[in-house]
Amino acid sequence: MQKMIVCLLLTFMTGLTAIEEIYTAVDRPPLTRKRLLRIAEKQIAKLPIDRSELEVIVDEGNKDWHYLMPVLRDSPFDESRKRYEVFSKAVEGKEFQVIYFHPKRIEGRRPFGDTTTVVLDIKTGDVLLVYPKR
Question: CA–CA separation, 104 vs 36, rounded Å?
């Protein structure tokens, strides 16, 4: 009841946008894995990358991401620390899902580099980060 009153007051004071933002941020359940993959694939389609040459990996629980972040933060290399700053700022205060687009394996091994990382807000589907920018 209290939430309804707040929403009605905000709607009266600022218009329909406020109520939409409240329900988007608070009450919306996370998007499905399938929906997040579609959004990420649309981002990849905008890039000069041959999608047929990529393997898609959804980082379940963002485990790889959480492993990588301290490595970047504590790196002796300025470029890695700068990447940490960009990455951490993009996801600050967000619930997110990381999806990697790796080059397909050759003879059972993944080629080094050329991975594109797409990070999405799991509630809104907003693209928080596409790295590297091409």
Answer: 21
The pLDDT of residue 118: 97
**What whole-number distance in Å separates Cα of residue 134 and Cα of residue 23?**
34
| Token representation of residue 42 | 């649309």
Please confirm whether the linkage preceding 132 is cis (ω < 30° from 0).
Answer: yes
For every residue of 43-91, DSSP letters joined together read HHHTSS--GGGEEEEE-GGGHHHHHHHHHHHT-SSHHHHHHHHHHHHHH
How far apart are the C-alpha atoms of 46 and 67, rounded to whole Å?
A: 28
Mean pLDDT of the chain: 84
pLDDT tens-place string over residues 27-86: 789 999 999 999 999 999 999 888 888 899 999 999 999 999 999 999 999 999 999 999
